[in-house]
Design brief:
Helices cover 31% and strands 22% of the residues. It is an alpha/beta fold.
Length: 307
């Protein structure tokens, strides 16, 4: 595929800091155009060439054609394949390049009505949609999203399509403004230990997406007894954790990672979710080092690379 647009994610920044000891080309959020297909019939090749596509980042042993396939692939859990590679993260060169390669099994065609600027969000939007796959949201009337970064914003937009009230807690006024304009209720936090004493409100469903190792303690504090806490943060390094609140309050803790691309594309096609206001700036691919530095500045949301 020729890469048309690629998005810079916090995970990409962590890769450069040593996360997973990755070596190679980073980048896993992209929209591209198929330019060649190998190992298939001419008719199938013609069907795919020229299509605008996005790609699931976990490449399973079944996609590689390994035999026998692993126990996770046999159970349909391809994102947990024991021999998987992960685009731009684990042993698979990623999207910060002119071209990349993935198995056809990983590709999803982008409808003509969905622009590249929207399609480049499919991978993180799918991760947000995974919460709807894991949690029976009709049990809840409200949900809190802890964090105001890019993934937290997408999570709030997705949950708004399923729940009457979504409240975002964050410490950056300029980022909270994005959520407020999208019709999401916002609450300001300080991002330090004082929040544990100041915040009295609790929720039956809470999503932790701060991207910070200190977010977990506040998330436990804000989840009501027998509530459900969904963990979305991935960061490099250890997090201080006390387990007694989990036991005493009998919390259900759910880890949540990659999600359904088809559902994410459907939300974009219908217009129920529009992530484009989150785009801060687009850089040329040759300016990738400057773009990555810019993406780490305070107040910056989504930064894109255009090949």
């Amino acid at each position: 595929m020729r890469v048309r647009l690629a998005g810079i994610c916090n995970t990409d920044v962590e890769m450069l800091r040593g996360y997973h000891s990755f070596r190679g080309t980073s980048g896993h959020e992209f929209v591209g155009e198929v330019v060649d297909v190998y190992g298939v019939s001419e008719s199938l090749k013609k069907k795919w060439i020229g299509k605008h596509v996005v790609g699931e980042i976990n490449v399973s042993c079944s996609a590689y054609g390994y035999r026998p396939i692993c126990a996770f692939c046999r159970r349909g859990l391809k994102t947990h394949c024991a021999r998987r590679t992960v685009l731009g993260i684990v042993a698979h060169d990623g999207a910060f390049a002119e071209y990349l390669a993935l198995p056809l099994e990983n590709l999803h065609v982008v409808p003509d009505s969905v622009s590249d600027e929207k399609a480049v969000f499919v991978e993180p939007l799918a991760a947000a949609c995974e919460i709807l796959e894991q949690i029976y949201t009709k049990r809840f009337r409200e949900v809190a999203v802890l964090g105001d970064g890019k993934l937290a914003q997408l999570i709030a937009l997705v949950l708004r399509t399923a729940l009457p009230l979504v409240v975002m807690y964050g410490k950056h006024e300029e980022k909270l403004a994005f959520a407020r304009r999208a019709g999401i209720e916002i609450k300001r936090v300080r991002g330090d230990d004082s929040d544990l004493k100041r915040i009295k409100k609790s929720y039956g469903l809470l999503i932790e997406a701060t991207g910070s190792p200190t977010g977990f303690a506040l998330a436990q504090h804000m989840t009501e007894p027998r509530g459900t806490l969904v963990l979305k943060s991935t960061f490099h390094g250890a997090a201080p954790i006390e387990t007694w609140p989990i036991v005493v309050k009998e919390l259900t803790i759910v880890g949540s990672r990659c999600g359904p691309f088809a559902r994410a594309i459907a939300l974009l096609r219908s217009g129920d979710v529009d992530p484009t206001p989150l785009i801060t700036r687009t850089f040329a691919l040759k300016e990738a080092p400057a773009a990555i530095r810019f993406a780490q500045k305070s107040g910056v949301m989504k930064v894109l690379l255009k090949a």
